[in-house]
């Protein structure tokens, strides 16, 4: 009989003592989101892809039910938006032209199964790669924002005060490097070469966002992929430890030089501020101490690792780490968002609350792509 997943002590303390600020005036004017299924708020609903979860029991704890979010309730982005005094950030593909012409509080371009590399996730069907997500953001600032912020100075000020959230890279391993039957990356690159490739590509994408007007960045590394249920169950031979450390070792190669890449960008991009999110070490002490002794999904999963449609999930969702075979529960998302907004452990060298309050460089010329 499987052991019940216990909540890591760090997450318990954050969850119990947290109280997200509601009803406040927005700290930044907008939150723009780029990433994968950890952040997707419904973009994949509009794509021909297997990476789609617009059905129950997904959203069982979300106010409006199943929306395409890959969890039982709110995502990290949802909690951050609430803390910043902003509404939930709508999926770009869900917006009509009229809505795009009028929205000023941010847009979510994230897409389940997407990665840093354009080919990542495509074996599952259509996805919005990071390249495509940035292309849609270009459309936003070229076609829609000028209707609201009519001068370049107004648009620059608005964008420089907005927060840009980027969390991506997991699928470049899960739905690329670790799937040699569908992709050739593991044959063409050594683990170190692949890690370097991902960082270099991400660095270029972040530069693109900067030259489009972004100044305040929140960028996450990659979490412990070797500890998610789908990876552990697929490992051959089955690991003696709670996690597949061979997979974690791949992620370490990417994360090792991630801080230096972020610092390099901040030094070279005048007026930029980067907050670095660390989801890898969030769970380190819990896993190594054996607090989480078994990777268990809250719902019954299908062959894709998603919850079976209309299945009945576990009742103790607030005690579970994993919702399905890949994604965390709302409770974990809440804990991460709370610490990144208020604390000093997961997000450095400042938290998101401090980032939002940091003055923008009003006298600096802010380039905007045409």
From TrEMBL:
<dbReference type="InterPro" id="IPR051238">
    <property type="entry name" value="GDSL_esterase/lipase"/>
</dbReference>
<keyword id="KW-0442">Lipid degradation</keyword>
<keyword id="KW-0443">Lipid metabolism</keyword>
<keyword id="KW-0378">Hydrolase</keyword>
<protein>
    <submittedName>
        <fullName>GDSL esterase/lipase</fullName>
    </submittedName>
</protein>
<dbReference type="GO" id="GO:0005576">
    <property type="term" value="C:extracellular region"/>
</dbReference>
<comment type="similarity">
    <text>Belongs to the 'GDSL' lipolytic enzyme family.</text>
</comment>
<dbReference type="GO" id="GO:0016788">
    <property type="term" value="F:hydrolase activity, acting on ester bonds"/>
</dbReference>
<feature type="signal peptide">
    <location>
        <begin position="1"/>
        <end position="23"/>
    </location>
</feature>
<dbReference type="InterPro" id="IPR036514">
    <property type="entry name" value="SGNH_hydro_sf"/>
</dbReference>
<dbReference type="InterPro" id="IPR001087">
    <property type="entry name" value="GDSL"/>
</dbReference>
<keyword id="KW-0964">Secreted</keyword>
<keyword id="KW-0732">Signal</keyword>
<dbReference type="InterPro" id="IPR035669">
    <property type="entry name" value="SGNH_plant_lipase-like"/>
</dbReference>
<dbReference type="GO" id="GO:0016042">
    <property type="term" value="P:lipid catabolic process"/>
</dbReference>
<dbReference type="Pfam" id="PF00657">
    <property type="entry name" value="Lipase_GDSL"/>
</dbReference>
């Amino acid at each position: 009989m499987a052991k019940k997943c216990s909540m890591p002590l760090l997450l318990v303390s954050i969850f119990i003592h947290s109280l997200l600020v509601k009803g406040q005036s927005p700290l930044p004017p907008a939150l723009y989101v780029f990433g994968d299924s950890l952040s997707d708020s419904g973009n994949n609903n509009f794509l021909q892809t297997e990476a789609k979860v617009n059905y129950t029991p997904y959203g069982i704890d979300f106010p409006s039910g199943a929306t395409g979010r890959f969890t039982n309730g709110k995502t990290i982005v949802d909690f951050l938006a609430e803390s910043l005094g902003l509404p939930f950030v709508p999926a770009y593909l869900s917006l009509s032209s009229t809505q795009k012409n009028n929205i000023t509080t941010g847009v979510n371009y994230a897409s389940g199964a997407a990665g840093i590399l354009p080919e990542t996730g495509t074996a599952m069907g259509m996805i919005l790669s990071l390249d495509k997500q940035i292309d849609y953001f270009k459309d936003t600032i070229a076609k829609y924002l000028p209707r609201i912020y009519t001068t370049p100075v107004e648009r620059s000020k608005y964008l420089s005060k907005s927060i840009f959230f980027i969390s991506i890279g997991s699928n470049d391993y899960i739905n690329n490097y670790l799937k040699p039957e569908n992709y050739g990356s593991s044959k063409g690159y050594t683990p170190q070469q692949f890690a370097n490739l991902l960082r270099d590509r991400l660095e270029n994408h972040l530069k693109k966002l900067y030259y489009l007007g972004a100044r305040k960045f929140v960028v996450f590394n990659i979490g412990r992929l070797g500890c998610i249920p789908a990876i552990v169950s697929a490992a051959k031979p089955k690991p003696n430890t709670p996690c597949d450390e061979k997979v974690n070792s791949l992620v370490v190669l990417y994360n090792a030089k991630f801080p230096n890449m972020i610092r390099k960008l901040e030094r070279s991009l005048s007026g930029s501020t980067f907050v670095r999110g660390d989801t890898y070490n969030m769970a380190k002490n819990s896993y190594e101490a054996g607090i989480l002794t078994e990777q268990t999904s809250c719902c019954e999963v299908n062959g894709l690792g998603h919850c079976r449609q209309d299945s009945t999930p576990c009742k103790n969702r607030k005690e579970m780490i994993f919702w399905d075979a890949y994604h965390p529960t709302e409770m974990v998302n809440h804990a991460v968002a709370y610490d990144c907004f208020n604390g000093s452990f997961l997000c450095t060298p400042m938290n998101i609350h401090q980032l939002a309050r940091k003055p923008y460089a009003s006298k600096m010329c802010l380039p905007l792509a045409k």
